[in-house]
Amino acid sequence: MLTSSKKIHVRFNEVDSLNIVWHGHYISYFEDGREAFGQEFGLSYMDIFNEGYKVPLVHIDCQFKRPIAYGDRVEVHATFVNTPAAKIIYQYELRNLTTKEVLATGRSEQVFLDENNQLYLVNPDFFIAWKKKVGLL
Q1: pTM, whole model, 2 decimals?
Q2: Strand order in the sheet with 87-96
């Protein structure tokens, strides 16, 4: 399994009047995890775009376990889920850095679109090569 992580310090503008992180920011934290993964393992959005593809999200979910508050330090873990389908799938975990409590979990799926925004139904050659390079094939 390939996993990347990124530390996040919760900012004031991310919380509501109850001092709780607004639910939409959890998805942003997942995005931070995807970007960290891409940078670490050579599968960034620009790496994919430079190969002639876009990878829009087609599904994302989040299970909220514990509230996150202003000033909390959390860590997002993004784990690549290997699948034979022409998709990029990640699982996420948000943990409090101090208590190690799991705050949220989630999953996202992205598909490949070519330069004409047509759905690509098979794994692109560059993606197969990337999987081989990182030991997934």
Answers
A1: 0.94
A2: 2-9, 73-81, 87-96, 102-111, 57-64
